Amino acid sequence: MSKQFAIPPVVFPSGGNPTAAGSNIQQRRIPTAPFQSPPSSTSSIPFMSFDIGSAAASTSGSFYGGSIGSGASLPGGTGFEDEEPLLDELGIHPDQIWRKTKSILHPFRVNPELHKESDMSGPFLLYVSLSLFQLLAGKIQFGVILGWIIVSFFFLYVVVNMLAGRNGNLELHRCASVVGYSMLPVVILSAIMLFVPQGGTLVFGLAALFVLWATRICTGLMVALVDGGDEHRALIAYACFLVYTLFSFLVIF
């Protein structure tokens, strides 16, 4: 059975005093649906009030404490000007990468203090550079180089920690960072090989020079970063020599 609701008639004033007619209209109640409370004009929520335009304008200016152009602050209390740069939030520090790269360029004055804080951004850039130089030489070896790098730092991580024994405190990410930065001489060799004819004594002499450079750097950093590594310098140098010799063969042939 359906319910019937009495709806008051709507009277449109015709003629007479317009003021009285206006007051008569204001005194009439707006018909509402069943079980619905009449709208409140004092509601503090914008979408619950009839004055939506003014509420939206006042809310947009005060939601973040002011306009964006005036250096407003976020709800957490920090402003847009206090936010860190995007590269820092991603863990990429160009200044640190440049300092580590410059320390690698001098084989006799490597600063181990710079490499105590490991990062993978610099080694990744060197990996991409080596792969691009090999691509310019007509060799598509992106997967091969990446696989050899992963095997190399796992190999050196196991060898160095086994030689150090109980004093072995070399972390895997630090070992990967050292191996990656020590790839810089191999990257330079790959760039030089673009302008040098293949084969001959000159190529092998250059390769041996850059391999010794990379071996010395990697060995010095490994020995400095591991407790008791100086006692096994020769064995660590031999492992590093094998790693960078393989990469030099990849560049030459």
Q: Can you summarize the main beta sheet?
A: none
How would you sum up the global shape?
A: elongated
> Number of DSSP strands?
0
Integer average pLDDT = 78
Strand content: under 5%
Write a short abstract of this structure.
The chain is mostly helical and 253 residues long.
Features:
mainly alpha; about 250 residues
If you had to describe this structure to a student in words, what would you say it looks like?
The chain has helices spanning 18-27, 52-62, 86-89, 94-105, 121-136, 142-164, 172-181, 184-192, 201-225, 233-252. The chain is mostly helical and 253 residues long. It is elongated, with a radius of gyration of 37 Å. The chain starts with 17 loop residues before the first helix and ends with a helix.
Question: SSE layout and pairings?
Answer:
Layout: H1 18-27, H2 52-62, H3 86-89, H4 94-105, H5 121-136, H6 142-164, H7 172-181, H8 184-192, H9 201-225, H10 233-252
